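Let us walk through a complete example step by step. Step one is to write down the protein sequence. Step two is to encode the small molecule, magnesium ion, as a SMILES string so that its atoms and bonds are unambiguous. Step three, shown after the inputs, is the structure prediction itself.
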Amino acid sequence: MEKQQSDDRPPAALVDVVLPCLNERSALPKVLGALPPGYRAIVVDNGSTDGSGALAASLGARVVNEPRRGFGAAAHAGLLAASAEFVAFCDCDGSLDPAQLAPMIELVRAGHADLVLGARRPARGAWPLHARLANLALSRRLRRLTGVPVTDLGPLRVARRGALLGLDLRDRRSGYPLEMFLKAHRDGWRITEVPVDYAPRLGKSKVTGTIRGTVTALIDMGTQLAAGSSRLPVAKSGPEAERPPADAQGATP
Ligand SMILES: Nc1nc2c(ncn2[C@@H]2O[C@H](COP(=O)(O)OP(=O)(O)O)[C@@H](O)[C@H]2O)c(=O)[nH]1
Ligand SMILES: [Mg+2]
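Step three: the predicted structure of the complex.
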């Protein structure tokens, strides 16, 4: 994907990038080094034992410590610590390129979308087969359930900070990204996705590369799907993303 032209980039300090981090020492230099100028990194250290927090701070990132384990606990702590108008979420494992956030933020800033997801285009070896198949099945289910033409529940995502806080996200484990998607849809957000590169991660996987992580993710996603199914508006068919009611346009706080 092409990088955003510098004159399209949001001005400095408009974007906080939340990076949940559990023992990602090997990936931190690459991830932080790829942040576009003016984007602030918030590394949420979830009890790393490899010195990730100190390394991130030495590389200029703001480090937030979240003692409660879990992807959602870390992601949400980062959201609460953020202060910029736009908040992005990005894995801290070197698999995603934060430079590709720029066009995603531009879609929200320009008022074309309220939540933008990066749909992963994997390089060879980036995505374990079971995780890819599970994600395909989940995406199909979400399309049927919501009518949103989503093809990947990707971890690289962008929205306005105040709007995200208004979703009242409760999951603190692996259901957090799905809860965000379902509650955003419930609230009439326009959800769209753009293709992003997906490279093999650096360091060891915490979620889909482990049996425990995969089982936890399946349980948490199932819980969110059950809760979400009961509160969703009636699905609309067709390729168009949902349009919010006029008073929710832009979902600006
Ligand atoms: N803080 C925190 N981060 C986590 C936890 N589990 C995973 N992560 C981070 O969440 C991101 C995604 O995890 P990862 O292991 O890459 O998952 P995978 O891509 O499914 O293998 C990485 O940046 C991890 O460091 C956790 O329990 N706490
Ligand atoms: Mg990963």
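Step four is interpretation. Residues 20-22, 24, 44, 46, 69-71, 74, 91-93, 201, 205-209 surround guanosine-5'-diphosphate (ligand 1) (CB under 6 Å).
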